Amino acid sequence: MAAMAAMPLTLVAPSLDKVEGYVDALRQGWSPNNLRDVSAEQINAYEADPAAFVASLTSREGLILLPDGSRVPKLPFIARWLWDGEFAGVISLRWQEGSDALPAHVSGHVGYAVVPWKRRRGYARAALAAILPEARSVGLDQVTLTCDPDNAASIGVIEANGGLLAAHIDASLHGDGPKLVYAIRLGPILDTERLVLNPIGSGDFDQLARLNADPEAGGRLKHGVLDAAATRDQLDGYRRIWVDHGHGMFAMRRRDTDAFVGIAGLWQHDDGLGLALRYAVMPEQRGQGFTLEAMRAVLDFAARRDLGPVVAVTRETNAASRRILDALGFSLREVRQHDDRRSLVYAQPAAPDATAQPRRQDPS
User: Does domain 10-140 have CATH number 3.40.630?
Assistant: First the structure.
């Protein structure tokens, strides 16, 4: 294949004007289906009627053939082609209306396949990142993906997009052997006047490490300054909270510049105090009211999810944090004496102010 300058990768709907690239990949032996080779039957369908073939790739009518020979109705799905000026692969999203669950014959919400001559360019990772907002838009809180236990490349793609290992399964129903099941918690996106809050994920590691290494930012939290290895463990824990509980920590970014501001959210306090606020802001972003703005959004999120009472703990010497809690209406409940400091435990007000709405309605 002649080389050509690649354009930025985009996801496009299957179309007649781009189908030649798709069919050319089929003719070179590539198959969009990882479970069985469908290249020959798709080439035949294309040659019989190109327009009907393209329409079939996005039609939700009809039945699909399973590896055991049975046929079942199609689920709702979205099909996209990876396009960089040439055809580069496929990615699809499937779901059941009103549920994150899938039928037993469906191995995961998302499947993808990159043509061999376009691999090692980060396309799979970028495509998965691009399809996740579409999953959120159809009402999913979580998506699952499966891959072979020895497929290090696919594991890396999934984990880079926030995937956490959820299970090991025998995928014989899908015509295959043992599989790893990964879950990606989508979570809500909270919008405020000046901020966008996203559930914290793998892509936030560098910023989180910078925050944790700063004595005036992460150093003010209970754990103190953390190195890169400890930050990685912390981030894995934050991501696990989202997968297990549907709430957790958010990464704050400025709406105007997309600059990383800090973290804000909820965690299970390790002193047995229950669900607690946690927040930290980079020194260069202080003095602008970002923490108060973000925490009002987080408290509104917690109230709409009916998560129950929330506490907050801060060091007695942290005057800025105490002012924020006062502004949120929290009241001092307890003073705790430690060997090197005193910490203040604050209780949540009865009804936090509502200042932000998620970009989609939460199912609760």
Answer: yes
